[in-house]
Amino acid sequence: MVKRGEVEFIDRLRHRVRLPAxxxxxxxxxxxxxxxxxxxxxxxxxxxTDLLIEDVHFRRATHRPDDIGWKALARGLSDIAAMGGEPxxxxxxxxxAPYCDRRWTDAFYRGLLRFGVPLAGxxxxxxxxxTCDIVVAGAVPRREALRRDGAGVGDAIYVSGCLGGSALGLxxxxxxxxKRHVHxxxxxxxxxxxxxxxxxxxCMDISDGLSLDLHRLCKASGLAADISAPPIFPGxxxxxxxxxxEDYELLFTLPARTPVQRGLFRIGTMRNGRAGxxxxxxxxxxxxxxxxxx
Amino acid sequence: MVKRGEVEFIDRLRHRVRLPAxxxxxxxxxxxxxxxxxxxxxxxxxxxTDLLIEDVHFRRATHRPDDIGWKALARGLSDIAAMGGEPxxxxxxxxxAPYCDRRWTDAFYRGLLRFGVPLAGxxxxxxxxxTCDIVVAGAVPRREALRRDGAGVGDAIYVSGCLGGSALGLxxxxxxxxKRHVHxxxxxxxxxxxxxxxxxxxCMDISDGLSLDLHRLCKASGLAADISAPPIFPGxxxxxxxxxxEDYELLFTLPARTPVQRGLFRIGTMRNGRAGxxxxxxxxxxxxxxxxxx
Lengths: 294, 294
Known about the structure:
Two copies of one chain form a homodimer.
Chain A: H1 6-16, E1 25-27, E2 34-36, E3 43-53, H2 65-82, E4 86-96, H3 102-113, E5 119-126, E6 131-141, E7 156-159, H4 165-172, H5 175-182, H6 188-196, E8 202-205, H7 210-221, E9 224-227, H8 238-243, E10 250-254, E11 265-271, E12 278-280, E13 283-284
Parallel strand pairs in A: 4-5, 9-12
Antiparallel strand pairs in A: 1-2, 2-3, 3-6, 4-6, 7-10, 7-11, 8-10, 9-11, 12-13
Helix pairs in contact in A: 2-3, 2-6, 4-5
């Protein structure tokens, strides 16, 4: 076992990698997407990859193949939404397990293709467990991608919906919460509104739980945060709303007096302090969300 | 088990996918890379993904972590070479097995980063077996990417070096052949020469064996081919040279009278006939190379 979590792993890796300007990479490891600037182009391109592995991210007994295809792509689209981007195409590397027959693969691709994002290529192999890696490419006008590192002192912190639904669904496998778990809806429209209209100062998606993801946003912005309880998915606990992963709502910051539309929930304020420190109603909130290497 | 091979699987998938012009995808599923044309840019971008899975593509007992990192990226770079491209950046999705400690991951990334290609992002997870999916992005001047589908009747067929070395190395685990298997050298410089100077009419890399890869090139170009035996890696058999995978040499076609440099081997001629049909010294050569779904 790697004796440290994902945050440290990624920090170490980031410091090993050189990104010469000639590579076109404007933003590398550590945000929802990498940003690439093609020569002479009017748009920046966003790239994200997301693994979805049997018995790690889903189980054969509870997830239908079309659910798996849907979720594989939804995770990547949520990263594009978090940067205010518009999806352009995707690539899929898919390792098929021995039980994956033609019906399985047809259903899988049906789920994946339902979003209407062109599948431009990928790779295919056989393995013991189903393993998908989805790559999504998106586009934003040059220099306008939303990032995690732009929040300022006094900015208001928002979430785009109730949290904890996916964790509740995973626990109960029932009703609206289960649907939320298996069919998350990437917030692509909202991401664009945040970029174009509300001029969010920072943004990311809540994939690993509010406590961990807000910690990351704060760390990237070099600030701390004070929050109160977020809106909670009906039936979920406060714990699930704070630390449960895979809600795929957006977490973002706006200048304090920005008027916002309905359905967006202010949960707190960015402040000076130790970078990454989050307080809930005045008490330290540890980043207990889902750590992929814990 | 899927009751059909990879060629059919990919054919079926290709027919299911729509690629609207607005997506920017110029070439989708079925070549070494997808081609994406950014708006207003002077370059086309190439994208390829390659899976490398423990106990499918490598074994823990025989492959050191730096070899695995090297090979993961080399496979993708070979696809960029096959289109005449220049690598720009890569993304890596990596699932770590329980035995992967810090020494393992450090060595893995050392192998991967040795090529000097900037690592711009990716994903990380835990799984039972090490699973890597590498994404490589490359660039070529607009409309100049080499493809599989451009070979013409009478074009000469070439390979860029001796074949069968990787298959021999896998069997013997010794000497130059083993080195060829674990440390393949993507033919990036040659790919550029083929595009800029020799104006190759079609090109691909030999990753799954000459017999299968030439079948694919012929099928894509709607033609047949007549060849004689290719140059054979010292110690390898003709079978290994014809059907063994992972040599990562280039297979390409040139107008018949093109003068070529040393180190390129003419093995035959493109002809009219049933698309995909290959004859070796006048006899049918079945596509027996490595089929990832067989």
